[in-house]
Fold this sequence. Notes:
Blueprint: H1 2-20, E1 22-24, E2 37-41, E3 49-52, E4 58-59, E5 64-69, E6 76-81, E7 89-95, E8 98-104, H2 110-122, E9 145-147, E10 161-162, E11 176-177, H3 178-194, H4 196-200, H5 215-227, E12 241-243, E13 261-262, H6 267-283, H7 294-311, H8 338-352, H9 355-364, H10 378-386, H11 394-408, H12 432-451, H13 457-467, H14 492-496, H15 541-544, H16 548-563
Parallel strand pairs: 9-13
Antiparallel strand pairs: 1-2, 2-6, 3-4, 3-7, 5-6, 7-8, 9-10, 11-12, 12-13
Helix pairs in contact: 2-16, 3-5, 3-6, 3-16, 6-7, 6-8, 7-8, 8-9, 8-10, 10-11, 11-12, 12-13, 12-16
Amino acid sequence: xxxxxxxxxxxxxxxxxxxxxxxxxxxxxxxxxxxxxxxxxxxxxxxxxxxxxxxxxxxxxxxxxxxxxxxxxxxxxxxxxxxxxxxxxxxxxxxxxxxxxxxxxxxxxxxxxxxxxxxxxxxxxxxxxxxxxxxxxxxxxxxxxxxxxxxxxxxxxxxxxxxxxxxxxxxxxxxxxxxxxxxxxxxxxxxxxxxxxxxxxxxxxxxxxxxxxxxxxxxxxxxxxxxxxxxxxxxxxxxxxxxxxxxxxxxxxxxxxxxxxxxxxxxxxxxxxxxxxxxxxxxxxxxxxxxxxxxxxxxxxxxxxxxxxxxxxxxxxxxxxxxxxxxxxxxxxxxxxxxxxxxxxxxxxxxxxxxxxxxxxxxxxxxxxxxxxxxxxxxxxxxxxxxxxxxxxxxxxxxxxxxxxxxxxxxxxxxxxxxxxxxxxxxxxxxxxxxxxxxxxxxxxxxxxxxxxxxxxxxxxxxxxxxxxxxxxxxxxxxxxxxxxxxxxxxxxxxxxxxxxxxxxxxxxxxxxxxxxxxxxxxxxxxxxxxxxxxxxxxxxxxxxxxxxxxxxxxxxxxxxxxxxxx
Length: 567
């Protein structure tokens, strides 16, 4: 009897083990020449992997299995290299009772890249949105915006009504912030300059599609038109943001009733504005048929803004000082403008060739390469020099970039998910999937293109694998894609409309062990581990919000991957 019970217990344990086996994998797709890696949790898959080929034939492939242990949870995982699966089609993979489907195609990132860019159309402010599923009437026309007392000047005293229409809603809220908008435009314009032919043929079905301008640039112009309204005509300084005093509730744009203000000028917003306008002046100059005269205007306002920043180098945004009314929306505060000075000076040197901008760029140039973020735009400034073959700082910036990349790839062969991202405690936090995963992948792609090598692109694809499902939670972190993606992002329109699925193509912030929202949530996070601290509920702004800077990184990263398949 004891022997029988022992056998039953063993059988039960095997069944439980099989039930707990899970496969983490890229749920969107892979290139034929891309490595095919899955991660198995719950059992050692050696000898248990079966692959049904696109032609229906089932094989037992020769796989390479590596055991890995999470530095935070201690969970054991098995990294499985499936070998050469180069025929296009769908591969059905079994590991005992666990299954997944791996899609191999020549264009795995095409649809998700287009959706990530078209998201910017869906979040336009001040116009009606034309879409068969997500269409909506005009919201926030912003033709009657008040000048806050913190932004008052002689020509525009407090209470003055100005018109400041268009632009994108910044994140899950309905406000518009110059700092974050400028960073978003800058990142996407840098990608455009690296891949002009690709973007010339990328159509996203927006109202401007069909003109002589690539859709990406048309989308940038929609926000740049708003930018032009955010500069004080008296002195050239730029308002930090256009905002309501407090965040709106989870209601539709047409239901919002709070007054909207432009608030204090800041040195960071003004420099970011100067940088973007300088780049836009260059890039839009050949597009006079669609945007006549814009380049001349953009160049002028850019230099005026830079001069204001030079005269007000410590004019940092201090929201706690705003009164009558007080303001409690996103701050985008930054007490160091050296990186903004570097970016603006670099962009203006490319535009004008003036010595003063080169001298300033040298003064503020970074000593290390970091992933670009709204709060540290030095790398976006570095892109200005990398894009020009004989620029004065190109070799210095390229040396810093390759040093960063070489350091970032060191831990891949010991990682839990066969990727550069996700191996350090500092990888995770607010907006980590954009700022540390996508932007790191973008730097890998830059390094290969600018150095003429093929060393780093495979690591960029590994970060994409992580982002799209080969990770600790098993989520594809982009809405509308994969078998398991966020359904309840912190996004007011998606929460307030009557449509079950959120806008497609939105990148959520991702695992955030800081859990800054935990006291406000109706439930608790399922895990406190670094790479599992994610909650797919609308209230989780710390892990599940969306934002234009995050989506800009997604656009730049995925469009680049879509443009250049691995050799």
